[in-house]
Amino acid sequence: MQRVKTGLIDFGVVLAIVFACAIGAIAPVNAQDKSELLQLEQIALAEAHITGYLKVGPKLNKMFDRIDKAGDKPDKQLSADLEALAKTGGFKSFDELETVVSNVTFVMSGINEEDGSFKEPAELLKQELTETENDTSIKAEEKKQLIASIKESIAHTPTLKHPGNVELVKKHFPALVKLFQE
């Protein structure tokens, strides 16, 4: 799949969705109900959320293989390890950590790495749609699939409910980017 370069962080919306899927924040799409593609519970982030995530993030990254292999049925040991990890970051539960990570990645997907500006993720997807539609280097069938995928993403991408999250994520942006690159 080709990613159109728009000056955004390379992982942009794509990484946010992949990362959220890895930790279970995005519901699986089934043939019966595609209307609930994203189940992002938006919260107002606090400094403690970000610093807690930065504290446990490297260990969480190392657990992705186990999380991925478990799918939607983690064993008791993995669940216990995830709960314990979340508590070391100051979170009440792994569910709270998941929610924080989902909110952070959602905001990061709208931040332009070059100038620090923020644009709603759906607006960036619309930009990507226009660029994909106008890109003559993409084969017709691939372009058709990309356009359909982008349109579906646009339809299911929520608007940011807590604008204060942007400044908080920007404050920690370099550390968060480094965490995602580990």
How would you describe the overall organization of this protein?
With 182 residues, this protein is mainly alpha-helical. It has one domain. The chain has 9 helices and no strands. α1 runs antiparallel to α5 and α6 packs antiparallel against α7. The longest helix is centred in the C-terminal third of the chain and has 17 residues. The two termini are 23 Å apart. The N terminus is likely disordered.
Question: Which features does this protein show?
Answer:
60% helix; 182 residues; 9 helices; single chain; mainly alpha; disordered N terminus
The value of Rg in angstroms is 17 Å
Q: Identify the overall geometry.
A: globular
Unreliable spans: 1-37
- Please estimate the helix content: 55-70%
SSE succession: HHHHHHHHH
Main sheet overview: none
**N- and C-termini, Cα separation:** 23 Å
